[in-house]
Amino acid sequence: MTNTYRESDRLCLENEEFVDILEERRHSSDLGHAFRTFSPHPYKGAPPCSAGELSKTVLDSQHLRYVTKEIATETGASVDEVKDDARVILEEMSQNLQLGFIRLMGYTLTKVFKRLFTSIYVNMEGLSMLQQAVQDSPVILMPNHRSYVDFLIISYVLFTYDIPIPVIAAGIPLAGMKIVGEILRRSGAFFIRRAIGSDKLYWAVLSEYVRTIVRMGFAPLEFYVEGLRSRTLKSLTPKLGMMHMVLEPYFKGEVYDITLVPISISYDRVLEESLLAHELLGVPKPKESTTGLLKASRVLQENYGSMHVNFGRPVSVRQLCQGKINRCQYNLIPRDLPQGPSAEVQACVSWIAHLVVRLQEQGSFISPWSLMACLFLQAPASALTEQGLPWQQLTEKTLWLKKLALSFGARLHWPGQTPDADVLSSTIALHRSVIYRKSGRVFLLLEDEPARKRPISAVDGVNRTAAAVLMLASYRNQSLHVFIRPALLATAVRITKSTRRDELFVFFCFLQDIFSNEFIFIPGKSSQDFEEACFLLKECGGICVGQEEVTEAEAGLEVLSFLCALLQPFIDSYQVIFSFLYELEAHVFSEKEFVPAVRSFATKLILSGDLHTYEALSSDTQKNILSAVRRLGAVTKLRVSEQNEYKVNKGAVRQIENILSGKIPPQMLQTAPDARL
Amino acid sequence: CGSTSNTDAGGLFMWMSLIGHSLRQEIMKWNGWGYVDSKFQFNKKGQAEFTGKRYRLSGMVMPALKEWFESTFGASLQHKTPASAIPNSSAVQPPILNEAFVEDLKSTGIPFSQDAEDRVFRAHGHCLHEIFALREGKVGRVPDMVVWPSNHNDVVKIVELACKHNVCLIPYGGGTSVSSALECPPEETRTIVSVDTSQMNRILWIDEKNLTAHVEAGIVGQELERLLNESGYCTGHEPDSMEFSSLGGWVATRASGMKKNIYGNIEDLVVHIRMVTPQGVIEKSCQGPRMSTGPDIHHFILGSEGTLGVVTEVTMKIRPMPEYQKYGSVVFPNFEQGVACLRELTLITNVFAGHALKPQKFYITKFKGFDPNRLCVATLLFEGDRERVLQHEKQVYDIAAKFGGLAAGEDNGQRGYMLTFVIAYLRDLGMDYYVIGESFETSVPWDRVLDICRNVKERIIRECKERGVQFPPLSTCRVTQTYDAGACVYFYFAFNYRGLSDPVHVYEQVEHAARDEILANGGSLSHHHGVGKLRKEWMRETVSRVGMGMLKSVKDYVDPGNIFGNRNLL
């Protein structure tokens, strides 16, 4: 099924028309745009629904009645008290979409966007499919999340093209921002707490609120299936709770169908780029506050290149679920009764969520800059900061990589009319915050040092370089999904030194398994992924594929080396942390001490020259590794409390390390699919 | 899906008592619904009219029908698909005869026939594919003989002979099946004998002290009602098909009548059943109104669809004819409100018979500022003593008002009831002009009614589109029966098949998909049409594997030789 979607997605690439929506704004009145006649066709002519009506429907729902009663019995509170609590939750959550505010936002955003971006490209075909889709079924807009800018861009585009404005699931911190929170609310945002945990009432209110929106269909629902803004610009493992809430009305027959629209938002340059690296290095993210945002107004002075908003082909949930979900399972229990999802439903929800992430990846646009970042990171950090890379060589290699990316089916944002050399020069210019060119060589730009009394310590030096490297890594990550499957295969070929297809497949699966928090793979599709890797790598001349054999092609050296090098920082980081784990003195460690301990461990190794990647310093990588070893059963959680503690099985860690370094062959590791809801 | 208006005091149409066994064939269509003399047609001016004298609608011209017909289906009076005129006897395969059986049967003196026309007439029910094939003059496997028992003992003899000679028996009542129940299994190689119960049509006694009547099972609904009325009684069981369907058929399919809110469904109405099976006669020893004697054996018989034996005699509850009867109707702004109101009414009172439907435009078009595309009509019937009827009527209208319903008069109510019976005739009109369709039903909990209606209607529309139907189909529904815990929902589905090479196949695929959708939305496999052969494939998931085993073991014990070999249900 995945493959079918991929093929059709590629087909429509041929005649896609992208329009720069800023172009018109630059030539006509912003006010005129803000006050344009807005008359979208909603789903089945569903009447508009005020925020008050929506809340009332939710509060009066049978589901909430059940849950309130249940909680009242459990806690000894009166039903009315629980109901009041529910009302408070709902007030905190509720959107209050008003067209007037959309107009105001429209006006403001036009001003801001024109300043920030050269162009904002939107695919017209996707928009017209969306326009049709909103009339046929409730629509769920599912963008990826790489920047705060994502937040209102979709509403802005839909407003411009007469499509109903969505209500948007947002994190509660945004609601806390003075004025801005209220503006967002009135622009259709509803707010969800971050750590809901086992708060039954909150879950009930939230899920009923979401389901009611889907059921009524008066507006599309927009949410980020990745749950968070990705600090690494890489896709995140999709969150399943919200996805399940959204799909439930279909499972339960409350709507005929639901349409999912994956949306890929790609940036040449992300507004938050310098924040990203610092967050990953443990400088905590500033709490969202209005003044913080205003301080960020420095950001407005800069140019951020182009942005692509690619509306994917609408996907019918009904079609996706055919043969996967037996809707009769809801026949014997009242549908309003709180009921945990069956294993079948969990698997299906997880599959759909992963599929959407994959579709987002396939719809996203790769900039020349991201390709260059891939290449930068294959050079030693010292070479980048001290000697620099020869410009000529970088140009040639980037053009080579462009060809490879295209043959792997990537969508590139590569201005066609401009000579390649100019494209690359302007790319460097756009990213002068990270890189600079001097006398035919390109250097990594380290951040200005704050004035200090004492000289920079060695550790500070590492951190400085790490900040720059991680920023580069984030941009590299934008294109990782294009290369990841062939890269896993190339790595399998190099590490196992095997030519047997079945052995390579086992190792390929092992890599997918161990890296399943780093790269998003659709559960249960390993053999398709493997086939795809074989096909792509064969097509580009990297390998020869026989019935039983896979061998390195003679001319395959360059491709294979590039792909292995692409994955190397990940492998190195994982190995380092494996060493950390089995060199631990105790068998138990707490979550709190894990990150700083790993960081200092890795820093030492970088200083001693034993570790070549700075990516091991990223807290994101560290957390992913912790999840991986837990998934593989090498580390177990002991206590769930404020101080999560873990127990290490050093033998198991050692074994994983040995498999990863090719010392022992992997068994078919069977881990339970990650289908938490 | 037939008539209901036969309780009209004036007796607008009369059922002639069938003395000769083939008389029924002479007054009824062999390849369509109902009486030969009654049908819709477009006259020379292009206006629709209903012929004959039997119904209130007979002789009336309905100018709005043509426009509705053309605009709903994109049909045109220029594009005709007439049926082949006469039954084609040469298309019928010669009978497979078990000579020894025929000889023994002759000696009993029970009338029988091997005439092709008699056999074809009893080889089908009224499913679309059955009627469509007949109109094209196509005939498949048909019974090899027809036999007319005239009482219980005749049936006992026939079943004994069938067992002795290993002959397949298929009981035949009114022939109004819509589940392929009467279709002869094509793989059947034995002689198939159609046991036509039409001559077993007497009321054997009426017990006025206990208000029961003992009736032969071949009696047809309207005849039963007419004869009881003569004595001042009624059963109150009025399925849409009651002009033609038989008491035995009702028992064998678990029939339901329009007035079941007042009188009950067939299972509530029967007090005693007598059935002849290959193992002998099954019946209870007394007529106690309720018993605790293990599982009720009546429930092995009710819904057995002719797979276990022939129902020969039934004792039924009767009631004095109602003193007063009043139709009524309520118009709601939309279907949702109409359904909500019916649900509320069911909670409060069971004194009316009613249903809610979305009217087609030839029926009610405008009503007091309601959106004609959304409005919904509920038709009502009140029965009882005058005072109470009026009291109930007021109560019902008061409740309806809470749901935005406005009383729309007796006339509309009566017309609504009339519509139920003409629909079956309408299908024949459609088939003259490239339009085929059918209705099918389900039962579903209240909270699912609106969801199932929306989803099934939508599924039908999308399936039609996917299968290349060139014109938008008619896909509509109504709530016909209400219960405390749910309702019976009817779907109407018809489309213009111009441009399709195998329209019946397309129809069947869409109906199949619609049934899947019904089941996925918590609807039942059938409320009262039964399973027959049409819906057999879903039986296991409907009643569970163990349930199937139970039913099978009953069949295996009662009829080990599969004498009653119509292969329905299991």
Set out the fold topology.
The complex is a heterodimer of chains A (677) and B (570).
Chain A: H1 2-13, E1 18-20, H2 21-27, H3 30-34, H4 51-59, H5 62-75, H6 79-93, H7 99-116, E2 119-123, H8 124-136, E3 139-143, H9 150-160, E4 167-171, H10 172-175, H11 180-186, E5 189-192, H12 200-216, E6 221-222, H13 241-251, E7 259-267, H14 273-280, H15 290-295, E8 306-311, E9 315-316, H16 317-321, H17 343-363, E10 365-366, H18 368-376, H19 381-387, E11 389-390, H20 391-407, E12 411-412, H21 420-430, E13 435-438, E14 441-444, H22 458-477, H23 480-496, H24 501-514, H25 526-539, E15 543-545, E16 550-552, H26 557-583, E17 588-590, H27 591-607, H28 619-631, E18 635-639, E19 645-648, H29 650-660
Parallel strand pairs in A: 2-8, 3-6, 3-7, 4-5, 4-6, 10-12
Antiparallel strand pairs in A: 1-2, 7-8, 7-9, 11-14, 13-14, 15-16, 17-19, 18-19
Chain B: H1 23-27, E1 40-42, E2 48-50, E3 61-62, H2 63-73, H3 99-108, E4 112-113, H4 116-121, H5 128-135, E5 145-147, H6 152-165, E6 168-172, E7 192-196, E8 203-207, E9 212-216, H7 221-230, E10 233-234, H8 247-253, H9 260-263, H10 266-269, E11 270-277, E12 280-282, H11 298-301, E13 310-317, E14 319-320, E15 324-332, H12 335-348, E16 352-357, E17 376-384, H13 386-402, E18 406-407, H14 409-431, E19 435-445, H15 449-466, E20 474-482, E21 486-496, H16 503-520, H17 539-558
Protein name (chain B): Alkylglycerone-phosphate synthase
Domain FAD-binding PCMH-type (chain B): 139-321
Subcellular location (chain B): Peroxisome membrane
